[in-house]
Target: ABC transporter permease
Amino acid sequence: MKKKLIPYLVKRFLRFDKDQPFIFLSAMLAFLGISLGVMVLIIAMSLMNGFDNEFRKKLTVMNYPLTVIPKFYGATNEKLLLDLETKFPNLEFSPYVQSTVMTRSGAKLEGGYIFGVNFNDEAKVNKILAKAIEDTNFGKFDVLVGKSLKDEFDIFLDDKLMYIFTSAEPGGLSVTPRIKRFKVKGVFDSGLSAYDKAYSYTTIESLQKLLRIPSNQYDGIHIFSSDPHSDIQKIQKVLPPNVSIKGWWEDNVNFFAALELEKVSLFIVLMLIILIAAINIISSLLMTVMNRRSDIALLMSLGATKTEIKKIFLYLGIVIGISGIFAGVVLGLSGMWILSTFDIVSLPKDVYPTTSLPLDLSLKDFLLIISGAFVIVIASSFYPAKKASEVDILTVLRNE
Model:
C-alpha cells in the first residue's frame, strides 16, 4: 500500500484546488518557465553551432586547409613541389604567386590580393574556384574576380580592371607602382563578402612575369587535405628548415575562440531562465507544504516516515520540472524544424555566410541542456521536500 501512496498523493497535490488557486498557478508558471527556457536554449545553441559550422566551411575553402610558405625568398620552388607530390600522392597541391594590389574601376578603388595560380591545380584544392571556372579558358592577363567586387564596380565579363601593385619599380627620377589592366573572364562566389572583394585570381605565368619571379619559384603551395590536423604533422617532418606549413585554423584562432566564448556565455545566461522558473517550483511546493500541514501530520501519525513525506514533495517538484523539460524539448525541436523548413528569417548575404538560418544541434549541447535543467529542478525540489519532512506532528494536530 505504501508504494501506491506516494504516486497517489503526488497526483492529488497536482490537481487544481479551488480554495488555493495560486498554488496551481505558481506550478503552471514554473512549468511554462522551464519549457520556454529549454526551448530557447535548444534553438540558441543550434544557431550558434550552425553559424560556427558555416564559418568553418567557408574559411576552410578560402583559406585552404594547409599552406606551405617559405621562410626565405626562393625557398618554395618546383623541386619542393615535386618532392611533396611524390611523398603525399593522396593530397592535392597547387603552387601560387601572390601580391597585394589596389583594384580600380573608374573612380572606385578596393584593396586586396591577386593570386597567380594554375587554374587546373587550383580547382582541385578550391571547390569555389572549380565551380567558377567551369567551361572557361583563362589566357594571359585574364582575371577571376569575386561577386562582391563585380557588384560594387558594376562590371561585366570581358570588361577591363586596373590592378595597381604595391611593389614599385624605378622609372627615371621617380619610383612608380606597377600597373596592369586585366580582362575579367569569370566570377566566383564564396558566400563571404570580405573574400569576394579582396581575392582575385589570374594565371601564374602572368603574375610571375609582372613581378619578375622565375617560373620555377612560388610564394607558397596550397594543399587540400580531408584531415589537415593530422597531415600537417606528417608534412612538417619532410619539409626543409627554410620552409614552414600552417593550417587554416591558425589564421582564425581568435575568431573561433570568441565564438566559443560567446556560446558559453549565451548558455549560462539562458540557463538563468530555467533557474528563475525553478524559483516558482520552490514557492509552489512551499505553499503546498503550508497548505497540507495537517495532511502531512496525519500521514506521519498513521505511520508515514519522514523519508516518504520527503519523497512525495520531491517527486512533486520533479514531475513539474520534467514535464516542463519535455515540453521545452518538443517546442525547441519544433521551432528548429519550422525555422529550417520555412524562410522566416532572411540574413544579409554580405554579412553572413548564408542567407538562411543555419541550425545544428549537437548531441553534446542537447545533453548539457537536459542535464543542466534536470539538476536545477532536483535542487529546487529538495528544500521544500526537506521542510515537509520536518513538520511537527504534535504542534500541528494540537492547533487543528
Notes: Residues 21-63 form the longest helix (43 residues). DSSP finds 14 helices and nine strands in the chain. Residues 2-59+254-399 form one domain.
